[in-house]
Specification:
Order of helices and strands: EHEH
Structural class: alpha+beta
Number of strands: 2
Number of helices: 2
Distance between the termini: 5 Å
Largest sheet: 2 strands, parallel
Strand content: 5-15%
Radius of gyration: 14 Å
Shape: globular
Length: 71
């Protein structure tokens, strides 16, 4: 099985959001098995020329070192 992916979050300018309050907020909104254990913060989501999010580029770091990329 592949490595577990963390949710990727883009902070608003000037925001000082950390992973702990975000995970705590999800406690009342999501079931235990759906709650994130950690969060990755990005400056911006990767997008192509037409504005679509490049999910493959987001997943790439989590598959580093694996021969097969399957869940």
């Amino acid at each position: 099985m592949g490595r577990e992916r963390e949710p990727c979050v883009v902070r608003r300018k000037g925001a000082a959001l950390t992973s702990d309050p975000l995970i705590e907020w999800s406690r009342g909104k999501l079931a235990g098995f759906k709650r994130p254990r950690s969060v990755d913060f990005l400056d911006a989501l990767p997008r192509n020329a037409s504005g679509k999010m490049l999910k493959r580029a987001l997943r790439e770091p989590y598959w580093a070192g694996y021969e097969r990329r399957v869940n």
